[in-house]
Design brief:
By secondary structure, the chain is an all-alpha fold. It has one domain (about 5-185). The protein is built from nine helices and no strands.
Length: about 190
């Protein structure tokens, strides 16, 4: 897509920045877990925590995508010659200050959606949340500079351009299909 077709900070830009093709990877484990819970609990299965988990997983995946977009651009990893899908900050679709606000918004939204899960899971989940918050802060500071850019997908897979995009797109679709099939198999 060309910059002229996408207005800066528009809804379309935010949808592209969220990277919808990656969302299946976030939902699949929740679908499988939900199917296992439904199979074990039967009529006692509570759909509310399941829906909250699905929403939380989706929002956190979007949050991770926005964080990745922001830090890759800030570090200079997302250049005009990069391979793979276009990135919102690199293309100028979303400004850095707006992307940072989007990250804050999705993080707060995820906390709001995830907080009721404490009611269902127990207060010990606060310890899990605290550890996750510390881990996320560490990741925000350290991973973009130490781990995430120590190799590229191209180096890892030895694929380039459209060939790499095709593999990654098929992988995301296959994860979702597997998750749905595994969930149906568990329920039956």
């Amino acid at each position: 897509m060309k910059m002229t077709t996408i207005r800066q900070n528009s809804l379309k830009a935010w949808v592209l920045a969220a990277r919808p093709k990656t969302l299946s990877g976030a939902v699949t484990p929740v679908l499988i877990g939900g199917a296992l819970a439904l199979k074990q609990m039967g009529a006692d299965f509570n759909v509310v925590p399941f829906v909250l988990c699905v929403l939380f997983a989706l929002i956190m995946q979007i949050d991770a995508n926005l964080i990745n977009d922001y830090y890759d651009f800030k570090k200079g990893t997302d250049r005009t010659d990069r391979l793979g899908p276009e990135r919102a900050c690199q293309q100028g679709w979303i400004t850095l200050p707006c992307m940072l606000r989007g990250i804050i918004l999705t993080t707060v939204l995820a906390c709001a959606v995830g907080a009721p899960l404490i009611y269902y899971g127990g207060w010990w989940m606060l310890a899990v949340v605290a550890v996750a918050a510390v881990a996320k802060q560490w990741a925000l500071i350290m991973l973009p500079y130490l781990l995430l850019h120590s190799f590229t997908y191209r180096d890892l897979l030895r694929l380039e351009g459209a060939e790499l995009n095709k593999v990654l797109g098929q992988t995301a679709r296959n994860i979702l299909v597997f998750g749905i099939l595994a969930s149906v198999a568990v329920i039956l």
